[in-house]
Design goal:
This protein is of the alpha/beta class. It has a single domain, classed as Indigoidine synthase domain (Indigoidine synthase fold, 3-Layer(aba) Sandwich), CATH 3.40.1790. The structure holds pseudouridine-5'-monophosphate and manganese (II) ion (MN).
């Protein structure tokens, strides 16, 4: 006797460990458009209670645009595709939730722990559930100083291999954006700006860098998604949707704040998975909450566009 629990756990469901909410199960039956939503932004990206409020508002925005929201998280040995409000509250208040990427999702499921899905893990789960479109705030990318730290988000390689269209306000401006775009290009990920030529920088509309591609309509983005599948290319698309003008923080205002937060992270030796949550929390404090207000507006904006893209894809399938 090892004293370890039996493996696999006797109640482990056969087939995929997916648990659909009633709303998402209904959409799967009728073919209604579904938009996946991540949960790391809830557990590691925003403070309570704004994290819960925002998650609810984002779901409402998806519904108002005619699609069904599927917030994704791991709980009780299952990948939940769609969370009811009790589960959302529990997740938003929970401490010690794992931050899941491709590397950790299976271990989290197998050991029955609670985990929030990053962009990478949400893409994996969405694809298993047959969901083509996913809305978030900003993807992870190449961190500044990556030449030394090797800190490059697994979100980038996931975009290269899993066929989900991800709507984000670019990559978070705490990153090395030129190197992030270079890695995406090498990995064959289409980076599509919407309504402008520039690649957006999360809190600001422009990064000062041109995006490789531009498509201004949801229909065009949906057509490109389906064309990639027809060509057998695999991998997803990054749709870079700028924050609404009224909600942005100007670049010359946010850049010094980012620099200060990065310096603190370096001085405190913050590393690996802790980097992004640390920086977001410090920037929140340093801007007196303005970074969070902007973050909320850009996620809502991305949810609207994702719902429109999902509707176009559903109509063409
Ligand atoms: N977008 C936000 N807030 C967040 C994140 C995205 O507006 O907190 C999360 C996403 O889950 C993304 C993760 O996948 O940050 C990137 O983390 P890392 O840099 O450790 O790969
Ligand atoms: Mn990292």
């Amino acid at each position: 006797m090892t004293g370890l629990p039996p493996f696999p756990p006797p109640d482990f469901p056969p087939g995929l460990p997916l648990a659909f909410s009633a709303e998402v199960a209904g959409a799967r039956r009728t073919g209604a458009p579904v938009v996946a939503l991540e949960s790391t932004i809830i557990t590691h990206g925003m403070p309570w209670p704004q994290n819960h409020e925002t998650a609810r508002r984002v779901e409402a925005e998806v519904r108002a645009a005619g699609a069904v929201p599927a917030t994704i998280a791991v709980m009780d040995g299952q990948i939940h595709i769609g969370l009811d409000d009790a589960a959302l509250v529990a997740l938003a208040r929970a401490e010690g939730v794992m931050k899941l990427s491709r590397a950790d999702i299976a271990a989290c499921l197998a050991t029955g722990r609670t985990g929030a899905t990053t962009v990478a893990a949400t893409m994996i789960a969405a694809h298993l559930a047959g969901i083509a479109v996913f809305a978030t705030g900003g993807i992870g990318g190449v961190h500044r100083g990556a030449g030394e730290s090797f800190d490059i988000s697994a979100d980038l390689t996931e975009l290269a291999r899993t066929p989900v269209t991800v709507v984000a306000a670019g990559a978070k401006a705490i990153l090395d954006l030129p190197k992030t775009l270079e890695v995406l290009e090498t990995q064959g990920v289409p980076v599509i700006a919407v309504g402008q030529d520039d690649f957006p920088a999360f809190w600001s509309r422009s990064s000062g860098l041109k995006a490789p591609l531009r498509i201004d309509s949801a229909a065009g983005i949906a057509a490109a998604h389906l064309m990639r599948a027809r060509l057998g290319l695999g991998g997803g698309q990054l749709v870079a949707n700028p924050i609404p003008a009224g909600a942005e923080i100007a670049r010359d205002e946010i850049v010094p704040v980012i620099e200060a937060a990065l310096a603190e992270a370096a001085a405190q030796g913050i590393a690996a998975k802790a980097v992004t949550p640390f920086l977001l929390a410090r920037i929140f404090e340093m801007t007196g909450g303005r970074s969070l207000a902007a973050n909320i507006e850009l996620v809502l904006n991305n949810a609207r566009l994702a719902a429109a893209i999902a509707t176009e894809i559903a109509a063409r399938r």
